[in-house]
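>> received
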Amino acid sequence: MSAEKLHLRPITPADTEKVVTWRNRDFVRKNFIYQKPFTKEGHKTWLREQVEPGHVVQFIICVEEEKACLRDIGSVYLRDIDREKGEAEYGVFIGESDALGKGYGTQAAKRMLDYGFGKLGLKKIFLRLLEDNLRALKSYEKAGFQLMSNRRETVILEQGAREVLFMEIDRGRWEERKNRA
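>> returned
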């Protein structure tokens, strides 16, 4: 996949049905720490209380197909944006099963890092992931995130106790990677 084929567009209320469908798919839900079923009402509240006031910046991931048609495949976001500390938490999900494993998540992560450090002026972006989500771990490493060896937690989910890993990237590391590219 070439980077030109991936686009990020701001999320809108019109995306609610699609996002709810994606987040409720088993292959998406099982990799989230928050695994309760998503609802339209809950998503609309999220948009109203988190996205609209700027606590969250969220985009829909679109890919170009057949040279023109854009297809929405997932979402990417920065949440809990702390403008004083210059930090935010990163998240992403690919909601279309046929779009998995094609590098779209890595490209979306790189674009969001550019946005977070370049446009928002953040100093650090971190993420959390379930330790058995190896596909995501590899994708995040390709985007520049590093594992925080001193930070872990255990959560109790439908599948039982699961370990949560933390990864981060700071502005300096992002700038180094941008300069090498």
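>> The two ends are 17 Å apart (CA to CA).
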